[in-house]
Hints:
Blueprint: H1 4-28, H2 32-37, H3 43-71, H4 73-93, H5 97-110, H6 114-124, H7 130-155, H8 162-181, H9 188-195, H10 199-205, H11 210-240, H12 244-272, H13 275-292, H14 299-326, H15 333-364, H16 372-390
Amino acid sequence: MKTAGTSKGALATVFGIVFIDLVGFGIMIPILPLYAQQFGATPLTIGLLLASYSLMQFIFSPILGRLSDRFGRRPILLLSILGSSAAFLMMGLAHTLWFLFLARILDGVTGGNISTVQAYIADVTEAKDRSKGMGLIGAAFGLGFIFGPAIGGVMSHFSMSAPFYFAAALAALNSVAVYFFLPESLKPEHKTTARRGSVREVFREAKGNSLFLVIGSYFFTTVAFSLLMATYPLFAARQFGFSAPQVGYVFAGMGILGAIIQGGLLGWLLKVLNDKTLAIMGTIILAAGFFILPLSHGVAMLVIATTATAIGHGLVAAPMNGMASKSVGAAAQGRVLGVMQSSASLARVAGPVLGGFLLNWEIVHGYPHFGRFAYWAGAAVILVSFAFTMALKVTE
């Protein structure tokens, strides 16, 4: 039985670790597309660069999830954070595009640790508090995207490689925090059970077709949002003349909204609405933001559209992971959340490539309305996610 004090203390510790991890990740998000342009990368090449990271996560997230079910959450988190530190250092040292690709691939191989963090939260929370606990990850994401892009924007004034060196140092310090302050959460009896499990058995154990629908909805939502994150720096620079620091500040604003929603409002909303209702609301708001974004003719409309996408995504992510977690038992948490993150990683391959291809097509063909193909394609993808979510039957 999990006590309230134990759960709260463990959640506070893991929240701090995820926050530091996401600050490092957030530092390079608005910088990387502009950094890659220095090596002659086109929008399509930038999309492929971002997709290479996600492709590796697609392959290795379920592997890391299963390893965390077998050997424990703590050693897998430690390994992945050290890998991220090495990858960030390589990015800062990069002088060619191929070396930048190599660094992103390494980061993708070792960086699929969110499923392990989610499994940790599942270990220390009751089912009724699961979505709220998953919301803490979203809050850490949000706060990471407040401080990370802002730090990256400030440090890019020194050089475009400085943010990557800072992120490498931050990840190294985070590994120290994991080693000294994070206790293991997986019980020995669940480790024994996990040795006999497989990803296929996770679907067999899941209730009805709920897991398939949750994964499908999460996949298409993530395709759209990753398309946005990959193309937004290029769109804002071309349409509004935004610099790397300015894009960083926009992403920081999105992080503030994400932190408010998932760290504060989500707990209250879940008292009056269920996971499915919140996810439906999120997809509708997200689709509206995507539709409005390329119609922006001034900064005010750009801010409104960007705010809608941040709010919509904030309402979708935690309920989806909560529903996936509640569909299986305690011994399969690492694997089911690994499958969720693997599907999200595959989506992050498709999203940047699709967005980069459409932006590149618009540039090559001189299309006068930059961004419309990309963002309206994203809105269409979100409508597919909406259909999957509507088909869900909620089981508490």
